[in-house]
Amino acid sequence: MKSGLVYAGSVLMALGGISQAQAADLTISCGAVGAELQLCQAGVERWEARSGHSVEVVSTPNSATERLSLYQQILGSHSGDIDVFQIDVVWPGMLATHLIDLNEHLPKGATDGFFEAIVDNNTVDGQLVAMPWFTDAGVLYYRKDLLEKYNLEVPTTWAALTEAAHTVQAGEREAGHKDFWGYVFQGRAYEGLTVNALEWMASYPEGGTIVDDDGKITVNNPQAAGALSQAAGWINDISPQGVLNYTEEEARGVFQSGNALFMRNWPYAWDLVQSEQSSIRDRVEVAPLPAGGKDGQSAGVLGGWNLAVSRYSDNPDMAADLVAFLTSFDEQKRRAIEGSYNPTLPALYQDEEVLAAVPFFGTLYETFTSAVPRPAAVTGDNYPRVSNAFFNTVHEVLSGRVTADQGLESLEGELERIKRRRW
């Protein structure tokens, strides 16, 4: 039986109600972005029916930054109150010491058929600390009806996106749609802004990826400055001032209500914008993110989430069995069809039922398999500091408090200080 914990602070209040879970055999933390929580609960119920065990599902903050802080406090206290953690693709290295080696609790060959790169990402010092659950890459959502109305092509560069956004935004506002905007994205100072800004930078030749694979700090360069300056120019032009506080769901809310032409988001939003409750149903398509000019490239950043078992769980074998079930072929297929969550099994990208539900899983397959990773592996335990420094700097640039050149020069110095701590 679980002891129950009382946590202080607004973030930790996300675990309010865990004390009611004392009779459950296991507790799992799940995200609540889009349909995540409902899909997790449905999967857990299927496992409960099969196994005869009970599971308490705990919702966690939508912000990845807040969720990591919460996890670190729970695991740092060696609490066994949560058995299974949903962890970001950039967290295995920093949380590995608190997680069991799933190789010791799952049958041999448990990772066969999964994307090898994600399995490698989740293997730390030879130990499999998490199973791949769903993968992600940033994509561009657009209103196909409005591009057709204004005789515009789907933009393949950021400059073309900006121009199309100006045209449609002006036309729609003139037609009486005063709250209409050209482009919405994730601009709050959190991990989501690290992702967005890295996509802007990496889309330009020599734009850099904050820190390269050799540990060299690459963020302070003219292409990166140009990318951030362009993005800063969107604020109060084609993007609302409020975008500076948007996470995924705020951006989706604006887009899904019909108040934006373009949106950067993850694939999960597809099922929601195409739902019966959506005011733009059947008027949306998905494309790769724009490139940074004719010599640039589309650069969706790698996302995704995995399932890990706490080293402090009282029931590690049972928890590992739950993880194996939730990451299985059938469960991933269900989640892909019902919620457009990208599978971590290549075979499902050729499944007719999956492709019928989410057509762009086929057309954008290369986007998902060649996504740009964040520099978590090379920076190790210091990645949260690197990311925090980066997204805070970008937020300052977008807010107009500093220029891109000033911000990146200062950021380079801060990253050098972090680097001296050995990443």
Automatic annotation (TrEMBL):
Fetch the InterPro entries from UniProt. Answer: Bact_solute-bd_prot1 (IPR050490), SBP (IPR006059)
Signal peptide extent? 1-23
What GO terms fall under cellular component here? periplasmic space
Tell me the CDD domains matching this sequence.
PBP2_TMBP
Name its cellular compartments: Periplasm
Give the keywords, sorted. Answer: Signal, Transport
Q: Which protein family is named in the record?
A: Belongs to the bacterial solute-binding protein 1 family.
Q: What is this protein called?
A: Carbohydrate ABC transporter substrate-binding protein, CUT1 family
